[in-house]
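Continuing the batch. This is chain 6 of the set; chains 1 through 5 are on the previous pages. Same settings as before, nothing changed between runs. Recording input and output for traceability.
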Amino acid sequence: MSENTRWAPGWPGIEPRWTSSAKQGVGSSLSPGSRVSFTVAHGILNEIYYPRTDQACTRDMEMLVTGPDGFFSEEKRDTVHRVTMIAPGVPGYVLENTCDRGRYRIQKEVITDPAREVLLQRTAFTALDGERDTFHLYALLAPHIGNRGWGNTAWVGDYKGEGMLFAQRESVCLALACSAGWKRSSVGFVGVSDGWQDLSRNGSMTAAWTRAEDGNVALTAEVDLCTEAESFVVAVAFGRNAAEAGNRARASLSDGFEHARRLYVDEWTKWQEGRAWHPRSEGGLFTTSTAVVRAHEAKNSPGGMIASLSIPWGSSKGDDDLGGYHLVWPRDLVESAGGLLAAGAKEETRRVLYYLQSTQEADGHWPQNMWLDGSAYWSGIQMDETALPVLLVDLAAREGAIKEAGRRRLWPMVRRAARFIVQNGPVTQQDRWEEDSGYSPFTLAAEITALLVAADAADDAGEGGLSGYLRETADAWYDRIDDWIYARGNDLAGRTGVDGYYVRIAPPDVADASSPAGGFVPIKNRAPGQSLQSAASIVSPDALSLVRFGLRAAADPRIVNTVRVIDALLKVDTPNGPAWHRYNDDGYGEKADGSPFDGTGIGRAWPLITGERAHYELAAGRRSEAEALCRTLESCAGDGGLLPEQVWDSDDIPGRGLRRGRPTGSAMPLLWAHAEYLKLRRSLEDGTVFDMPAAAAKRYLREGRHSAFAPWRPNQKCRSIPRGSTLRVELPQEAVIDWTANGNQRAAVVRSRPTGWGGHLADLPTRELAEGAVVKFSIKGKEFPEKEFSVSISR
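Output for chain 6:
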């Protein structure tokens, strides 16, 4: 270290925080040579990601302005922002920020260099009150390398004589350079010795610290405005060390912004034009959505897409929330791929399928969420996340994205997933909202349909001996849907004028009761003492998935009843149109006063559910209602055309930036919402639900198939079975079943047989037993308790 090093005081700085999740834009080059992605919000750059989209390296970068008479202005807080794409469907951005006191205007264009690991920002500063040379302009950058604000080291240095600022943590280094050069520069600890503190207090840069080590740091540098150039370019470059980052910054600045911009626009324009499907009206949110979803695909993990380049309520979160939404959720990934496929992006869909194949666990499931390399982050198991990749294979095949060779390649993945489903379903450890275990309508619909798709794939693969059991299992679960999740004759049904409805989720032990009302579910994200509710009191639009997946007709009285209850409890009116909550008493959202969600809160309306409701209306033949809801969904987009996870549905709170019908502090963009919009646009033009699987609707709605078997499992102990059905005892290992009926003294014996999918089953011949008969049986085998079970015969 040089003896001239000027160490910044105030180590380690204040506790780091991320920034707002309400993004105005996200972008990245399509070139594999550029692994840099970025977000913009409040008129400035926010997180910049490198070398993967799940690794944020900055909190934000903005400009600070000082001038005569102690004038100090911060770009993100003290200007009026305007954001536009640099070209239709091209996720680069023009940011125009006008001082709210009328003193200056800053116009920026933001892209990444397709040839290098560099973000480029071309900036023009215009004085609106006074002469340009009376102002001073500074760049302020907050590194959060490797998803962490702590542990960053910053210093002032150079690359081959050109002054730059650097920051490093572990094996990633960034360099901050400027085409106009830096007049002054300093590094410091945030909240104590950083440039913002210096400039806001003193009106000019009085400190010149050259090193801030191992803390929450910031880089500050003054731009030389005393040049004839109308604009200058700031480069944020990345590498393994200062030399590599500095070299890339210098080379990119040497090539020039216009060169990089031309490559950036050309590659995106070519991609947009090359998609196989285009709506009659292409512009607006459709092209924005295709760009947003595509921009999230990782370069070094092709087919891997995180859920969002954002951290919900980020300004209240620090290093402990490492993932935010920049993780891969298999469900969100499949939904995103479905949206791209609806827009004709077939090659991208293939990459997603092969990525899913490479990240599948040995037992056939996928992690609840994971880093791009497949490493699990949260450990929950959501059965829909095992079923949905199977359905994506089917959709891709129907759309021609994969041919026969692709289906053969993917069959092992489908086989393993199907095995996991039959061994562990239909109960899920977590529903699609990642909260409760039990019988969920969305999960049931996905599982049953996936088993049918897998059965067809088994036939195609020449493994017809397996397909029969898959279909039998699907049929048996299909026949039990109402037993598990349809509530009848309770107070809520009476208040809403229906005889019954589908509940949000029924806990596993409720399967043994006469009604889902017999159990309770914990409502997550609620304060202590407010979390436990009866299963029958909670409803969700998830029930519409029974129509979406082809298990119920849209006009089915049970569905119509459920929609009536959903609208009574979950529907809210916004200036954009109607919107719906995930379920009643949801706690995932801002608090009543608008303060950030911190583990408890009040659930808000989700735009993607408006899209799901539009799909239901289309399935019901009400096209005009579906089109109106599509317009509502479009109106939920933020200023930059991004769709949020949630919109505010209470009275406006201007001090917190919350307006009715506008985005909250939750994730924005949410890829799942953009994908739902893309699929909705395709569905409206096709006149049918784009991603509805064909297998279930054919088998159950048109052919009227039912099960001859009633399954009993250790994790799914039915107490009654329909008269005329065969009691099927399904077990993880080989066993012998001793059973009697109607109190007979002499027991019959049935030995289990392998299913071909890793388990065993024994069919007890109960078809001829009369209503009211009682079957008693015990299981003899390894790891089975010495216990007698009973099942009655119902109507």
